[in-house]
Amino acid sequence: MKRIFSISLQNRLALTYALFIGFALAVLTVIINIFTGLIFTSLVKTNIAAKSTEIVRVVGERYNPMSRGFDTVIIEAIGMYFVHEGYITTVEDESGGLVWDARACDMRECITVIYEIAGRMEGQFGMSGAMRKEQYPIMYAGRTVGIVTIETYGPYFYSETESTFLASINRLLVIATIILMVTSFVISVILSRAIARPVNKSAEAARQIAKAHAGGVGGKPLTIRIDDKCQTKELAELARSINSLAAELEEAECRQKQLTSDVAHELRTPLTCLQGDIEAMIDGVYKPDRERLESLHEEIIRLAGLVNDLNTLTSLEWERLTLNKAEFDLAALLRVTAEQFRAAAAEKGVEIHLCLVESLLTADYDRLKQVFINLLSNAVKYTDNGCVIVSVQKATTVGVEWEVFITDTGIGIPEVDLPHIFERFYRTDKSRNRSTGGVGIGLAIAAAIVHAHGGTISVESNGKSSVFKVAL
Ligand code: ADP
User: Which of 86, 101, 197, 276 maximizes the CB count within 10 A of its CB?
Assistant: First the structure.
């Protein structure tokens, strides 16, 4: 079997967060670096230009218009000061004669400064520049009285203070990035753990439920539930879904257990009777005369009917019920069904009255017939004198089209039994019903069919008569 590489949700989330944050931080750092570099370079270039202008200005101030010459002593002091700053200056007078030259003044110092700057720019900042010369005129009364030539490392250079400042900024940026990366990694681990924990819990619960369910009817009860008070909407929804699935499975399991025990119980009694009777006949205790055989036959038919009913109920409750819907007149269906019971009712001296109006309905004709057969058979079965009334009327409730009432003047249903009457195998009086032959499935079948149609079935009884209402 091909093994699929799988990674836990927590690790996946942590990795995704970490990668995303790492990438975002790296991009941010590069951008900040580039921008700081650009801004700093432009500041430095402005500074160099300002310094050059300053040199020209102070040298210009040393021009004496009377002697048409320069104060070389002061110019030397100014020039040497700027040599230390990285500006190698030469001053010429208006006729091109050399006034002062930094190199001629102190060659050693000039070379030292140039090497220092070039070493810093190439070693620390990876720049390969060269010495560049710029010439500036010295103006006096609108005419050029001299030329200042300034030689600097170009295209630009950082002074010692500037390079220290830039290096500190870069160092700070690196430290901040490392701190942010570590912090965000820790946060991503905490965050992913917080998200993954409820998911893992749900998965574990689902596994437990599946395990308990696989145990079948005899297995552990499906009482496992997850805490659904999670602050994340989707995770709370997941927990609720699993809980409702578990509840449904638990209910289904209970129904299955109940059905198994009910069926066993319902079959055991008549089978024991049959077995006893047949054994008695084999042993010669009874003679297998016609009357006894007919009674056995009746019991077998009743059992077959029970199995049939169970089959119908199982298919109604467990399988997806497919309804063959067509439009028909509900009144006609009720009339035909009632006619089937007229003879049996008359035999007991019970009359069947119909109070019907044309009532067109789209539903499954055969299934609904089964509902009314069950209700009418009960009405006739449990009524010894009086009448049974079958009526249909337009519904007054929203969402309901027709309401069918089957009213009898029979023995009524005790109030305590009313809420359970539609439950499978529920009988109001066990001993009484044994004689009437019912096992308590008829109403459960009727209810399942009505519900499959989206309708409701209910009963009211005052202890003397009963009214069954089917709303469709
Ligand atoms: P059964 O096959 O026992 O009649 P049902 O599911 O049809 O089963 O009915 C369940 C129980 O409800 C019956 O056993 C009976 O006690 C009670 N019942 C149903 N219909 C009536 C009625 N019209 N009058 C009195 N009791 C009724």
Answer: 86
Question: Tokens 């467990």 identify what position?
Answer: 318
Domain ranges of the chain: 9-180, 225-320, 321-471
pTM of the shown model: 0.51
Is 439 close to ligand 1, i.e. is its CB under 6 Å away? yes
Compute, in angstroms, the gap from residue 355 CA to the centroid of ligand 1: 23
321-471 carries CATH number 3.30.1490.270: no
**Class of the 9-180 domain?**
alpha beta
Tens digits of per-residue pLDDT, 263-319?
A: 787 788 778 888 988 898 899 888 888 888 888 898 888 888 888 887 877 777 666
Ligand 1 lined by 422 (C-beta under 6 Å): no
| Ligand 1, atom 13: closest residue by C-alpha | 427
Residue pair 270/299 in contact by the 8 Å Cβ criterion? yes
Contact 382, 410 (CB under 8 A): yes
The residue whose two tokens read 């749900």 is: 202
Neighbours of 173 (CB within 10 A): 15
Residue 421 CA, closest ligand 1 atom number:
12
In whole angstroms, give the CA distance from residue 176 to residue 88: 40
- Tell me, using a 6 A CB cutoff, whether residue 409 lines ligand 1: no
Q: Is 102 in the pocket of ligand 1 (CB under 6 A)?
A: no
Per CATH, the number for 225-320 is 1.10.287.130
Name the residue with the closest Cα to ligand 1, atom 19.
Answer: 378
Identify the helix (H) or strand (E) that includes residue 386.
strand 386-394
DSSP letter, residue 422: T
**CA 375 to ligand 1 centroid distance, Å:** 8
